[in-house]
Design brief:
The chain has 171 residues and is an alpha+beta fold. The protein contains five helices and nine strands, in the order ααβαβαβββββαββ. It has helices at residues 2-10, 13-46, 55-60, 75-82, 130-143, and strands spanning 48-53, 61-71, 86-87, 92-96, 99-103, 106-107, 124-127, 146-155, 158-168. The strands form two sheets. The protein has a seven-stranded antiparallel beta sheet with strand order 1-8-9-2-7-5-4. The longest helix has 34 residues, at 13-46.
Length: 171
């Protein structure tokens, strides 16, 4: 309020009224700009970038229930994934001691990783809830399903894997 009184003392009355009337609009515009910036950032963070898609899985199997899971990776592996050096061609998911593991997925060595690179086709742990693992295991054991990776993508900077319960096609 003090700055308004200073304006009134120094300026013409009409100029002061115009400035005072425009202040709420400028403040409102400032908040709208901040809101738009926040929405743009949320939209950018929420986007998914597909790194690799397993076309063979949809060709060889009837895909039914799909799950999103995280993957336990090392630093050089995530850098290779961001560079797109992943193959899901012959990979599959198995459940061992209540944990889901992906086997046969090939992540190429990171070119600048030197001593920090790990085996390209090592088994990697999938991050799923216990209930999801139990449902998947029951379907594998009782109904004869298999679990295949469908696609790998980056979501909010993290590598995610979409897996699906699948029944084989008679080709």
């Amino acid at each position: 309020m003090k700055w308004i009184l200073c304006l009134l003392e120094r300026m013409d009355l009409q100029v002061a009224i115009h400035l005072i009337a425009s202040v709420p609009q400028q403040v409102e515009n400032m908040f709208v700009d901040q809101k738009k910036e926040g929405e743009a950032m949320a939209e950018r963070n929420g986007k998914e970038k597909t790194v690799v898609f397993n076309r063979r899985a949809s060709h060889d199997y009837f895909l039914e229930d799909r799950y999103e899971c995280g993957i336990q990776l090392t630093g050089t592996e995530i850098k290779s994934i961001r560079a797109g050096k992943v193959q899901l061609k012959d990979s599959y998911i198995s459940i061992y001691k209540g944990e889901a593991w992906i086997k046969g997925m090939h992540i190429s060595n990171y070119s600048y990783g030197n001593i920090f690179n790990v085996d390209e086709e090592r088994d990697r742990k999938l991050l799923l809830h216990k209930e999801e693992i139990r449902k998947i295991y029951d379907n594998i054991r009782m109904k004869g399903y298999t679990v295949v990776p469908v696609r790998m993508y980056l979501k909010n900077g993290r590598a995610k894997l979409e897996i699906a319960l699948a029944k084989g096609k008679n080709l």
